[in-house]
Amino acid sequence: MGRILLAGATGYLGGHILTKLIEDNRQVTVIARQAGRIHPPPGSAPLVTVLPAELTQPQSIINCCEGIDTVISTVGITKPQKGLTYMDVDYQANLNLLQEARKSGVRKFIYISVYKGEQLQDIAICHAKEQFVNALKASGLEYCIIRPTGYFSDMAALFNLAKKGRVYLFAKGAAKINPISGEDLAAACVTAIDQDKREINIGGPQTMRFTQIAQTAFDVLHKKPAITYLPEWLRKTILRLARIFMPAPVFGPLEFFMTVMTTDMNAPEYGQDTLKAYFETSQ
Ligand SMILES: NC(=O)c1ccc[n+]([C@@H]2O[C@H](COP(=O)([O-])OP(=O)(O)OC[C@H]3O[C@@H](n4cnc5c(N)ncnc54)[C@H](OP(=O)(O)O)[C@@H]3O)[C@@H](O)[C@H]2O)c1
Prior knowledge:
The protein has 9 helices and 11 strands. By secondary structure, it is α/β, with parallel strands linked by helices. It has a 7-stranded parallel beta sheet with strand order 3-2-1-4-5-6-9, with helices on both faces. A two-stranded parallel ribbon has the order 7-11.
């Protein structure tokens, strides 16, 4: 089994991928801008090498892919970042890594984009991700593009609203999604190392409407559901004003979330973890 280079291990999905790679006894090099945030479980130290580096600065990753069989990158902006755009990180930082991978003769590059990313390219995050996908496809390397729906970690926003007493939804809460846990998705990412699939659309085992997700949150909290359905014109107005008045790094994640809430994001079902169980452990 060849050595894996993992970028993004300090994040939600990347952390689960690191755990899974260690469970599978894989040799891993982890790139992190804050190396101190990587804590391999006891006994796993011989498997893990941590390389402090900043992917947005190409000089800090020179030769990082020497001796690497497969690169996995979950790197991307999911929360506002001062001074950096999706094009700087989701596109350019991953491109810097891809260039190193090509230079060092890496066999395969696995990248996490987003379900329906190609259709949603008028949204800044999807545009940047799909620009990288195009570069990866043209790179000559073996590749796998993983396209997940939403993660359980993102559904926590609805759970937190339920905790406060009321959930606000758009489009009558009718859009469908099958969110996936970090653990299930990590298993699929690690399986992809030795699979011959170029693109994987993937979601969790249960497809739900947003209304059902909100109801599940209230059930877990033993509260009577209190859901307000906001009209489409209001969503459009909020987005139009936010685009003008909000700094781009704050607007981006809002734009993505408010779009997903009105788009059917039901991908092929995978895994076993349920959102209800996740909410139960988030209380
Ligand atoms: N969350 C979702 O629902 C969802 C759905 C579909 C696809 N995705 C995609 O899946 C990927 C992983 O998501 P996640 O929820 O695990 O994200 P996350 O928890 O925010 O982790 C993102 C990772 O990217 C790294 N990163 C961010 N900005 C960076 C920068 N400027 N330079 C270097 N590294 C940087 C972070 O490092 P630091 O810890 O140092 O910041 C972290 O390791 C992302 O690309 C995301 O767009 C997410």
